[in-house]
Amino acid sequence: MRRYVQTPGSIGEFSELALRQRAEPLDLVYVGYGLLVVAVVVASYMLGAFGWLPDDPQAMNVGLINAAPFTSGHVLGTDFLGRDLQARLILGIQAYFLPGLLAITISVVGGSILGILAGYRGGWFDTIITYFDNLLDSFPRLVLILLVIAAFKADIYYVMVVVGITGMPVIANLIAGKIAFLRQKSFVEAAHALGLPAHTVILKHILWLNCRALLVIQATLGMAEAILVETSLSYLGFGVQEPTPSWGNMVQAGANYFLQGNFWPSTAPALAILATILGFQLLGDGLNNLLEGKRRR
Amino acid sequence: MTRTILEVTDLRKEYSQRRGLISMLTGQGRVIPAVDGVSFYLRENETVGLVGESGCGKTTIGRTVLRLTDPSSGRVVFDGRDITTLSRAELRPLRREMQMIFQDLDAGLNPKMRVRDILREALTVHERPSDAEIARRIRELLEQVSLKDSKLANFPSELSGGEKRRVGIARVLAVRPRLIVADEPTSALDISIQAQVVNLLRDLQKELGLTYLFISHDLPVVELVSQKVAVMYLGRIVEMGLAENIAHQPRHPYTGILWSSLADKQTTEVNRRVNDVTVESERRTWGVFDFEHPASGCRFAPRCPLYKDKGRPAVCTDPASEPQLRDVGHGHVVACHFA
Amino acid sequence: MDAPLLAIENLRTYFYSRAKRAFIRSVDGVSLEVARGETLGIVGESGSGKSVTALSAAGLVTAGPGVISGRIDLYSNGARRNLLDGLENYARIRERDGRVMEVEKDERGWRKRSETLMAGVRGKEIAMIFQNPRSALNPYSTIGKQLMETIRLHTKLKGESEAKERAIHWLERVRIDSPRLRFDNFPFGMSGGMCQRAMIAMALSAEPSLLIADEPTTGLDVTIQSRIVDLLAQLKAETGITTLLISHDISVIQRLSDRIAVMYGGTVVETGRAAEVLAPEAKVRHPYTTALLASIPSAETIRRKSYLQAIEGEVLDTIEVPRGCRFYGRCNRVTEAIRENCAGSEPPLGEVATGHKVRCWLYPATGKA
Amino acid sequence: MKFAAVKPVSRVLARELAVTALLLFGVSVVVFAILYLAPGDPLNVLLEGQSPRSELALGMREALGIPRTWYGQYAAWFGKMLQGNFGNSIRTGLPVLPELARVGVYTLTLTLGSLALTLLIAVPIAVHAAAHGDTAGNTAATMVAYVLSAVPVFWFGYIVVYVFIHTFGMFPLISGTAAKQEHAWLYFLVPIFVLGVASGTLSEMIRHLREELSRVLAEDYIRTARAKGAAVWRHAFKEGFLIPVTEIMSAKIPFLLGGAVIVEQVFNWPGMGRMAWQAAQDRDFPVIMGIALVAAAFVRLGNLLQRVVFTAVNPRASRE
Fold first, then answer.
1. Reported ipTM
2. Do D150 and A274 touch (CB under 8 A)?
3. Architecture in CATH of A47-53+67-293
4. What radius of gyration, in Å, describes the C-alpha atoms of chain D?
5. CB-based contact, A11 to chain C, within 8 Å
């Protein structure tokens, strides 16, 4: 059963409703959850950066190893050295937060430039950029990162430059597609005909007015990617090294006690990863549905 | 005699169809002539209609005349200046004098901008008026295109087709142009709205002394609004003259077919002859728009009833004698060996 | 009038605007009859509901809530069947002041029931052709295969080779030359006119009792339009097929129709014999029809370079449907005597002459005659 | 506009092959550039073994016939590679190519198996959702897929391992040779299951397939098929199913290869991913380069296959 209800009102009152009233409730849940995650991550990053932690993340308590949550003041329990998990989880955000922003910046800026060259200038640029995209897409991202790690060093910023660059094609394609859509509506041409300078058309009309939602969406999805890459690398031992915490190396370290039935020290950071990545992805998808009108139906 | 505002001489526009790196490197790819040597002129305050089937190059002419796309060769002289040689920067001040109404109702209407901002932007492209002046001009524009004040706060998606068209026209009028290329200004509209827009365009011409290049496939409307009409076929003008002569005493067989097919739809008598011939043309050319292999000689010959009637004379298909436009009196020109 | 082949009664097809949280009353109480052998032309502007009426009749409305009430009777093989039979069980409508405020619809159940009712009707009894023939043909399959599919589905010719022969025969009948070569063409290599011919061949090859032609010439070039119209006229003469023709182009309607129905804002405002309704000298006519005809440049207008008589205002958007006459806001023939009626209640479709009905308060008395 | 004549599939195929070759050449340039820019002198390792970068060494290099210029070095390296000489592993001293071939089979099994599993889960959900709109069932399934896509693979692997220990009393962390044991098939299936379910591709597959299928079901020609009483699925199959499925399969290969690095690590699976991990640890350039090239070739091959299917199915594709 599907219900269709008309808002009561007299003739002439059916104006456009506010976004929240006509949006799919599910999208609002997605975006709401995503924003919550973003807020928690940013707040936690700040706490970590200023060192305002609930407990000393490095203080070991050998008498309280792999403790369950809510054990003697440790809200989320302790790890294999008896260190406070909550403090370490909060501090773990340092490992990906700024590097992730770097990756996003590279892919958004680079992707926008490529997308505009391909979509706006077209011709040669379009062809070259298509090949460039295909070239970048040819490498499994993690393998390329391992190659860079082998050649240079296991530095998260090097890695994030790779993540940023490999994230450019997606954004470039989306922007080129948007430009193609506007072109099809003679929009770009009409702006030129009016005498608007090219930079106004590109920066104001195309990027700012028509692509900003898209870029925000891609940035949130990009953050999810960056977190995934960072945690994977930390898990593989190429990221942040013990005793500095990162969600990835916490899972890895905790996993040694997994099979003895001590799930928690590994599961807590895993759940943090899950909740955060899910948050960024749902935020991206929800915004996509709300702002870009991509309905699931 | 009024001044000539626009003179187009031997305009050509070719599109190269090269895609992919490989064809780019090898230099392969086709060259498609969309406009193939077109000349005409517009006098101030007059309307010239440009008609023809889709794909015949009418829109390309409109775009090239405004240099929205660069011509391959030929001259476009606007108000005494050849605009084909101007740089982008030199061209910009001229843009305000010549404008285009696009077929697409959404052209120029940024979906994320309100009507007020669209008009404000158009008003401030070429000059920096005060806020009060802008408000006054916006009111004036609304009045000119008879649009309600309340629409200023709307986004384009909230407007009906007719309203979008009016906003589009207001946006063009904002820069106070002298020449307007109207590319199918009514084809995206409902019949009852079409009439409104046609009336509006004619009013504005009278009021503001505008010159129109009126591109359309709607023959009665073109006949109604234009003083002169040019008929295009496959990138060339095949006949040009006063509107009533083109409509009622066509000299070129293609013009005849165009107008009679209009009549065909309305009358129950079937013009069998035209029909047979045109069916044959589809057989011959696989559809009408074969730019790659234009028939040698007269490009209309494969569809031409006259060609058939005259027993397929060799002159029509002789590559050396493609018919040129020649004057048949009173400025009526036609490109046919037998006109 | 002859026995009807298709009778639509009080059909309502609504859509739902999420942005406005309101119903789009695309078809709002339409009643029509198509007699056996005749061509009924429905003319109207965009949003008048003409195409939705046709799609509803063929059970092709997909967006919700879709058809919510009415009857569509098809008379075939000596029996009458209602194509909306039993569907009312799947939709609950709540009205206030005679206005639908809420629709609750079991769309899955409705669709299932509708598919059962339409099986053996769609394609077989009712065939359709659409506008934009190039996108209406499957781009991934050849013309020939698509024709053969229809033939094998709906005629006794089940064999590969006989179906192929019949397909080629139909390509010939729609004046496609070298049909044997065309048979293996994909739609993308063909001109719009050629694609429309193939569409017509496909629709007629099932030998249906009713052909619904939804804007068959829209989007084609002028010269090709006239040839398609011509072809339809010739095929009509040859096969005598009953046709429901939908177009916004009055000249097409005029050329092909025996009777016409003029639609505005989701209802039929005038119906009658084509010659009578469109006659230049007609006295009794709906103001909308009059205005519509006046919007097209006539020879007289062109000769005198005079103004077109445009209809003021915008086309009704069928969301904010007024209580009175739907055309009231744009009508230039409202007199003081009837103004209250025009504004307050919708006029009935009254018979002004035999077979000629007009929905206007200007002609009330004859309506009851 | 005028349409070019239909080209035979073979010509399009030739074109696609040329594009693939061009891209693989580009891949080699990128790999070379990374190593060239790297500190130390990894290229030396490739070209003639380790030697410090000094004046003396440069003299030695010239004596050994190592080109001085970067393009000379590239040419020499590329030439060797074309002959199938990917160099020797620094750690083991074994030639890289045969080693890659040996472990590549394992990775291929893992990735293709998990791709099949992902499709098996994603396709029914997507098709149901496209055909019936949002229902409680497919919304729930899509949500689960979303969550699974965000689960860190490594942790999910441990969970699965733990479950197996408790249900089967076995320890499915193997080194590839344990295939003789009881329930041997599980040793293969468990990693495939983990990669297939939690590689992050599940939700994207569902979304892509659903969007494409919904779009195609709304096309005019599908309405025509309905109007003539034909089976909608037959008409929607090519554009709405076959093309998007091959598209998403091809697009997801690089992600699965990346995921394989982690899953192989978790399960001690003797594939290319583990080898890459080991090589990155040891700075074993010849190996990691070889892996990058082979992985890229694998990705391009998947793309080539997708193009072939697309061209064979879509008559418009043969128009250039």
1. 0.88
2. yes
3. Orthogonal Bundle (1.10)
4. 24
5. yes
Which stretches of chain C drop beneath a pLDDT of 70? Answer: 1-2, 364-369
d(CA B58, CA B234): 9
Inter-residue contact C30 to C53 (CB < 8 Å): yes
From the CB of residue C116, how many other CB atoms can be counted at a distance below 10 Å? 11
Q: Residue D188: left (phi > 0), alpha (psi -120 to 50), or beta?
A: alpha
The whole domain housing D170 covers 97-318
Interface test with C, best of A2, A4, A7 (most C CBs within 10 A): A4
Pairwise CB contact (< 8 Å): D23 & A131:
yes
pLDDT at D77 over 90: no
Q: Which of A189, A201, A204 to mutate to test the interface with B (most CBs of B within 10 A)?
A: A189
Contact with chain C for residue D11, Cβ under 8 A: no
Q: Where are the domains of chain B?
A: 249-339
CA–CA separation, C51 vs C36, rounded Å?
A: 21
Q: How many Cα neighbours within 13 Å face the side chain of D53?
A: 10
Residue B285 has pLDDT above 50, yes or no: no
Q: Does residue A91 contact residue A48 with C-beta atoms inside 8 Å?
A: yes
Domain contains D285: yes
Measure A18 CA to nearest chain C CA, in Å: 8
Total domains present in chain D: 1
CB pairs < 8 Å spanning B and D: 20
Among A278-287, B58-67, B296-305, which is the least confidently predicted range? B296-305
Residue B260 pLDDT > 90: no
B326 vs B239: CA distance, rounded Å: 9
Q: Do C177 and B286 make contact, defined as CB atoms within 8 angstroms?
A: no
Q: Does D7 touch chain C (CB under 8 A)?
A: no
Six token digits for residue A265 = 């020290």
Q: Which chains touch D (3 or more CB pairs under 8 A)?
A: A, B, C
Q: How high is the pLDDT of residue A231?
A: 92
CB contact under 8 A, B32 and D2: yes
Query: Band of the pLDDT at D81, cuts 50, 70, 90?
Result: confident
Q: Is the pLDDT of residue D52 over 80?
A: no
Q: How far apart are CA C200 and CA C235, in angstroms?
A: 10
Q: What is the CATH number of the domain that holds D117?
A: 1.10.3720.10
Nearest alpha-carbon partner for C318 in C50, C83, C90, C127: C50
Q: Which of C202-216, D80-94, D209-223 has the lowest mean pLDDT?
A: D80-94
Question: Closest to C227 (Cβ–Cβ): which among B161, B192, B275?
Answer: B275
Quote the mean pLDDT of chain D: 83
pTM for the predicted model, two decimal places:
0.89
Residues of D in contact with C124 (CB under 8 A): 229
Residue A135 and residue D289: Cβ atoms within 8 Å? no
Going from N- to C-terminal start, the domains of chain C cover 289-358
Q: How many CB pairs under 8 A join A and D?
A: 146
Q: What is the mean pLDDT of each run of 10 residues along chain A (297 residues)?
A: 77 61 82 96 94 84 81 82 90 93 96 94 85 92 92 89 94 94 90 91 93 93 93 90 89 83 88 95 90 59
Q: Which residue has the tokens 């990835």?
A: A248
Residue A18's region, left for phi above 0, alpha for psi from -120 to 50, else beta, is beta
- Mean pLDDT in residue range D244-262: 93
Structure-token pair, residue D182: 């009881």
| Residues of chain B positioned with their CB less than 8 A from the CB of D22 | 21
Owner of token pair 């007059």: B46
Q: What is the dihedral of CA D63, D65, D71, D74, to 10 degrees?
A: -130
**Shortest Cα–Cα distance, B310 to chain C (Å):** 22
Q: Which residues of C273-295 are buried (b: 16+ CB within 10 A; e: fewer)?
A: bbebbbeeeeebbbbbbbbbbbb
